[in-house]
Design goal:
The complex is a heterodimer of chains A (about 110) and B (about 120). Chain A is mostly beta strands and about 110 residues long. Chain A has strands spanning about 10, 20-25, 35-40, 45-50, 65-70, 70-75, 85-95, 100, 105-110.
Chain lengths: ~110, ~120
Amino acid sequence: QSALTQPPSASGSPGQSVTISCTGTSSDVVGYNFVSWYQQHPGKAPKLMIYEVTKRPSGVPDRFSASKSGNTASLTVSGLQAEDEADYYCSSYADSNNVLFGGGTKLTVL
Amino acid sequence: QVQLQESGPGLVNPSETLSLTCTVSGYSLTSGSYWGWIRQPPGKGLEWIGIIYRSGSTYYNPSLKSRVTLSVDTSRNQFSLKVTSVTAADTAIYYCTRDRDTGNAYRPKGFDYWGQGTLVTVSS
């Protein structure tokens, strides 16, 4: 099973919105509602931002939202702030009790 | 406050076995949740290695399954990872994590707690 596909980079100015896509297949994103998103700052462990496609853990700002349509899951960051600059990874449950990650997207706040 | 801490050698010889332990504090492994390992080669993306339930049930990345073993020691509140026959491709930061899922059949609900990560280099 291949990794999920994410754009290598994304950018936006403070206050703007940016959306990061995560493309999978019928064996993962399409077939299951177990997509998660993680934020990782340099030198730090990843942080869970979204789980089960659209749910936000306690403490994650509501500026972060997510959705899924067909084979593509998306993370939207609204009202961009400087501290949102980080790498973002999507993850999905896949057939045969596997978990796949995307290659990661580097978000730059201009 | 749930905390996870990886421990183990930072340097492993090629063809040998990589062994890491994750010590959990603030939460009993017997209470539920799934406990797993994720790795990240320097400068690269995340790769799921596998996960274990309190019962000992395990699920592994199919690409690593033949070389990976996860185990849990509830008396010490620890879980462990072994990777055999390592090569330079196994050089990575290894993170231990907790998945929010508590069911008997693994359905990932997000890795909400992470260790700080430990760099393991495979080299002679």
